[in-house]
Amino acid sequence: xxxxxxxxxxxxxxxxxxxxxxxxxxxxxxxxxxxxxxxxxxxxxxxxxxxxxxxxxxxxxxxxxxxxxxxxxxxxxxxxxxxxxxxxxxxxxxxxxxxxxxxxxxxxxxxxxxxxxxxxxxxxxxxxxxxxxxxxxxxxxxxxxxxxxxxxxxxxxxxxxxxxxxxxxxxxxxxxxxxxxxxxxxxxxxxxxxxxxxxxxxxxxxxxxxxxxxxxxxxxxxxxxxxxxxxxxxxxxxxxxxxxxxxxxxxxxxxxxxxxxxxxxxxxxxxxxxxxxxxxxxxxxxxxxxxxxxxxxxxx
Amino acid sequence: xxxxxxxxxxxxxxxxxxxxxxxxxxxxxxxxxxxxxxxxxxxxxxxxxxxxxxxxxxxxxxxxxxxxxxxxxxxxxxxxxxxxxxxxxxxxxxxxxxxxxxxxxxxxxxxxxxxxxxxxxxxxxxxxxxxxxxxxxxxxxxxxxxxxxxxxxxxxxxxxxxxxxxxxxxxxxxxxxxxxxxxxxxxxxxxxxxxxxxxxxxxxxxxxxxxxxxx
Lengths: 300, 215
What we know:
heterodimer; A: 300 residues; alpha/beta; Glutathione S-transferase Yfyf (Class Pi), Chain A, domain 2; Rossmann fold; four-stranded parallel beta sheet; 8 strands; 48% helix; globular; B: 215 residues; mainly alpha; Fumarate Reductase Iron-sulfur Protein, Chain B, domain 2; two-stranded antiparallel ribbon; 2 strands; 51% helix
């Protein structure tokens, strides 16, 4: 099966290594995909705060583009790796399906601009595709370096499983932990898997955002995780890039690698750190590199 | 017509202002905006607002409720009672980070995050709104950027936001910005979609449909 790929804005900028690593992993596993033509921003959380109808309209333009691009395919599955994109597309689809009036309004507005939307698209998270379509057994078969002895804190963030949990549980998700096990590493049992990282507050209202990120990192470190893995570009950014600031504010010597689940998976599949965009990290996940190269530290 | 009065009462344990006094603002019923709740209940599943039992699960599960001037539970009740001014000028609305914990946990199925979005929209168009509060400036700048270009460019967006709210933050974050730029994670280039006309047309059509609805 062929998938459509919807990168979203962050994966082309601050979250570049999420795109680099995810696409490298999909290629290595021979999962066929093509990028959605001329996609636009999903609207994230900001658009909804200003104009609801327009927020649903811009999100549904992407779904309409998907229907157009894959009109000859049997099924239309679109992979949205960014949590916000995934949630917004899902929420838009869900809302339109249950609100005939709004659906009609959006459909006719799309039609007048030369597009059509019938609600045929299936919105998929890459974790869902990897764990449920490709399968954990197949992943284990493809592993070149079993990441033995590495303790991994799987951090799902908010919007991957909330509010519309489709492939995992909203309170106690497990798919990332299963993936960690499938590549030979050890998932850490911890309670903050879906606790908010502070989202856009961390960058703009520090006194509220920073402690939220700090709580998560502190808990992961306390439980002796070697690395935190995320599935969201904003979570990764907050948890990694503000570590200096967090240490300054809370007088702590926190230093823990925060990488994308696709980067960890990529290392296990034998993909080079550079192809996985790991040279872009601020905090090198030393423990992970050591396990990959059997005790030797690999610098990228 | 009534008017707001301030009452002074006494606390036994000497909390409040250190002299054992508590100041409370009392509002008369006639000053409340009774139709406020109807406006908010217009959103999808909004009528569920009326079934709130004030259990406080939302406030307990909210990761930022202790920073808010009113907790989410209080906000819901204040909306229902018509405390429009207090709600729309509260920090609560803008501190909601859309983590959807409350929405998932609410035993009555109230979409609290969506209520917060509705309040954000009301706040922006109201007179009570602080134009320099970073969270709302960010939302507005983001909205405009996507309207103009179809995509969001993180570099220019943050630059604009800091200049509008707190230029000091720009200086403070310079080092972080440089590191991001060095690792290829920040660019000042504005990302654009190719078929901007198509997006413009779509948004125009939505505006037209809404005007027709309003009539």
